[in-house]
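Shipment paperwork, digital attachment
Item: protein structure file
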Amino acid sequence: MEVINGVWYMNGISRRDKNCVLSSGRLLEIIEDVGFLPLFSNDINGFSVENMTDPSFWWTGNEKTDPWEWRIVLSRTGKVAYGKFFGGRTGFISKKWFPYFANYRRNGYDFDALYDDGKAGRREKLLMDLFVPQGVDMWNVDPQTLESVGCSPELFTFEMKEKAGFGKGGEKNFEGVLTRLQMQTYLIARDFRPRLNKKGEEYGWPVAIMTPPEYLWGYAHVTSRYKESPDASFAKIARQIGKHFDADEKGVRKVI
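Attachment content:
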């Protein structure tokens, strides 16, 4: 998206273009082929869902044709991770390529080690403590055990905000902290669902449900690139972009 004379405009291509992506199924094929894809346009030409779709299809609410709705469809497949992974903006990473991002972004740290070394703040820990039980091996624990220690494998973002004490009179910058944890690959959006009222009826817009990627794909998979240097993982990500898009190093570093 770009602003021209104070008006937002979507980039993209005509639905009549043979390269236009017209379904969530086709988008999933592209993400799995490329490995990762931002939702909106950025410093790498063509490297986004926005650049591959017809602008008139966005925000129509039609699950079959609206790329905005596809983020919900694809997050539910378990084949890709969705979250704020690209310069603090949203996008997708395939299961195959997620370990490369995890190694590069985490620098080989699980969150508890990151916090113990003073590289993560107290507010980040407040959110991660909702998912990661203290003194319990989270990667081999069942949901019932998680519940018994006050943790959960997944939570609505509004539940996270309330449980961690953010909001009026409490901790500040919930969105910023949540974005950092996604950029570091410690949390992803697993699904989007409407809230439920006291009668159990759905209402309002779908809200993101967050989870650590280890609960989706397993600790061994997510951390499988820890054995290589973060720079080596970045180099492989950069080469993969270069196979599909015309990108210089400055653009790659800004987006990735």
